[in-house]
Amino acid sequence: MDAAAAAPLPEAPQRKHQAEAVDPLFAAAFQQAVAGNIAAGRAGHLRLHPEIFWLPVSENCNLRCIGCDDVITGFRKEYLAPADVRRLLSASAGQASFSEIDLTSGEPLLHPQLSEVIDICHELHPKAVVSVVSNGTIPVRGKYRDAYARLDSIGLSIDGATAEVFEAVRVGASFERFVQTVKDVVALRDQTGRPAEIQLCFTACAMNLHQLPEVVRLGKSWGVNSVYAQPMEMNIAPIRDAIGHLHLDHMDPAERTRWVDEAVALGRELGLEVAASDGLYPRPKEEEKSTEPQAGPSLAFEEKVAKLGVGVRRRSPDGELTLPHVRQCQYPWTQAPGIRKMGAAWHTTLCCYMSEAANTELAARYDLHDMDKQSMLDLYNGAGYWQFREDLAAGLTHEACGDCAAALTHGPSLLQHLAWRIDALCVEHGLSFPGGDALREQLMQPQATVHQARKLVNHLHQAWWQPHPQPRPVWLQELMAAARELGPPKETAPAASGSPSA
Ligand code: SF4
Q1: Half-sphere exposure (Cβ direction) of 71: Cα atoms closer than 13 Å
Q2: Which residues constitute the domain of residue 366?
Q3: Of the candidates 136, 140, 158, the residue with the CA atom closest to the CA atom of residue 148
Q4: By CB count within 10 A, which of 53, 124, 311, 324 is most buried?
Q5: pTM for the full predicted model
Q6: Is 282:256 a contact under the CB 8 Å cutoff?
Q7: Cα 4 to ligand 1 centroid, rounded to whole Å
C-alpha cells in the first residue's frame, strides 16, 4: 500500500447524505407505499418488470480474488447451455422487453459458446444491450475476439492502478496482461463499434481506495467510456476473517471521503464519467446515530426525500437493532434475479451482493428454484418473491444481507413506489390514468427527481380529483392532501445521477 507516499489531497466538503435526520411523514409515506405495493403485487394488481435480465452464463473463473465468496465455495466448469439461454429468454420475450441482458458471473469469457449465446440474446431481444463484467485476462484473439466483438457493453475489473496492488487484490491476474486487454478492447471498439460501452469497474477496500484517482487517469488515457467504483462487500465469515481488516470502515473517514471525491472531481476535469456508489463514503458511527426519527417540518421537500431512511436506527419487533438502509433496500424491486443452472438443477440468485450460501438458503425458503415451469418474470412476481420483499423491509433477511453497503446504491425511492401505486390502483379500480404513461416512465428512471414527484402529484390531481363514480382510494385522498400542503409545483433542474451500470 502506498497511500502514505501519495501527495495530500485538498479538503473536500462533507457529503450531504451523511445527514441523519429523517422526516417521519416521509418515512411513513414510503413505508405505506411499500406496504400498499406488496399487497397489490400479491393481489395481482401490480406486476414488476426489471430493466435488466441477468443471465449468469459461467460458474467458472480463472482468478481467486480476495473478497470473492465464490473462491470459498469453489468454481465449477459449468456454463449455461445455449438451449437454456434460448428457452429462458423466449419465455419472457412475449411478456416484456428488456433494456439490457447481463451475462455476468464467474468469468463469462470462459464460456466456450459465448458468441452463440450473445447471438441468441440479440435475436430474441434485439433492443437489449448485451453486457458482461470480465476480469480482463482473456486475450482479444480468435474465438474470444469474436465474442468481445458481439458485446454491446463490457465492464473490466480493475482494483488497483499498479501491478503491486492490482495483483494483490485480483489473485492470479497479471496487471500487464489486463492493461493489454483494455487497450485491445478499446482498439476493437474503435475498429468495429463494439463493445460500444467500455467501463472500468473498481471494487474498493482499504488497500486500494487511494489508487482510485489514478485509475480514473488511466481510464482516460486508455480511452474507456467510464469508471464505476463500489465497496468490497464482506458478508460471510471466512471472507471477514481473512480480509476484514481491509474493510473501508477501517479507514480514516475523512481520508476515505477525500479519495472518492478526488476521483469524481478528476473525472469531471478529464471529461470521463465516474460513478461512485454511495457505499464508498463513510456512514455515521453507531453512537452518532439518532435512535428515533427526527421531525423536520422546516426542511425543504427535497431534503426530506433525500434524507429518507438514511442513518436512522430502528428496532425490529423482536427488539433486534437493524440498519434501515438494508431494510429499505430496493434491490429486489428493480433488479432481476440471476437464473443459473448447475447440472440439471436451477438456482436462483436473489441478489449479487449476498453470498452464494445466503442466496441458496433464501431461494429455498421462498421456493424460487423451479424454472422449468415459469418465466423469470413470473418468478419475479410470484408469491415467494413478494414474501422476500416483505421480509427484507421487515428486517428478516438481515442475516443474509449483513451490513450491506450496496443497499445505499439501491436506496429508497418514494418516486418509484408512487408510480407503482398509480399502476396498481388503476388496475384494481379498472381506471385509466390519461397522460400518465410518459410520466410513469420518467419516474422509473434512477435519476427521477423531486421535481418529477411534484408533476406526479399534479397529474394525480387532474386525473383523480374530478368527481368520479367510484370512491377514491384512501391512499389517493391522503396523497391529495399532501399535494395541497406542498403547494404549486416548482420547476427545478433535475439532479445529476451517479447510477452504476455494472
Ligand atoms: S440489502 Fe444488500 S444484500 Fe440485501 S438485498 Fe439489498 S443489496 Fe442485496
Answers
A1: 16
A2: 331-409
A3: 140
A4: 53
A5: 0.79
A6: yes
A7: 34
